[in-house]
Amino acid sequence: MLIRINPHTLERAAERGATKDEVEDVIRTGTPIPAKRNRQAKEKVFDFRRQRQNVYYDQKKVQVIYVLQEAVAMTVTVYVFYGKWEG
Predict the structure, then answer these.
(1) What is the spatial distance between Cα 64 and Cα 33, in angstroms, rounded to a whole number?
(2) Residue span of the structural domain in which 23 resides
(3) For residue 64, what are the β-bridge partners?
(4) C-alpha to C-alpha distance for 52 and 81, rounded to whole angstroms
(5) CA distances (Å), 49 to each of 26, 32, 56, 57, 69, in order?
(6) Residue among 63, 64, 73, 66 at smallest CA distance from 1
(7) Contact 9, 49 (CB under 8 A)
(8) What is the rounded CA–CA span in Å between residue 68 and residue 54?
(9) 58 touches 81 (CB < 8 A)
């Protein structure tokens, strides 16, 4: 599957602490989650083990919202959550 990451997604990823490589990895290997408005979504937990905004976090969860058009996944946005998840 071809992945196209739009500039809005890259801006949000930078603001929220995710990389382009992580966004692509989530789309390729992440766990599907519910999404609204005929969109697709996947999430994946990454080891983080450092500080963000002066708070230490073990992990971060990256969620990517995208649409599928034939064999192309076009990103809509990305969300990043910090904390600790099991598994």
Answers:
(1) 10
(2) 2-83
(3) 42, 78
(4) 11
(5) 19, 25, 7, 6, 36
(6) 73
(7) no
(8) 37
(9) no
Phi, psi of 55 (to 5 degrees): -125, 135
- The domain total for the chain is 1
21's torsion region: left (phi>0), alpha (psi -120 to 50) or beta? alpha
pTM of the model: 0.94
Reported residue count of the chain is 87
H helices of 1-87, where?
Answer: 7-16, 20-29
pLDDT of 86 above 90: no
Q: What is the pLDDT of residues 28-66, one digit of tens each?
A: 999 999 999 999 999 999 999 999 999 999 999 999 999
pLDDT at 87: 59
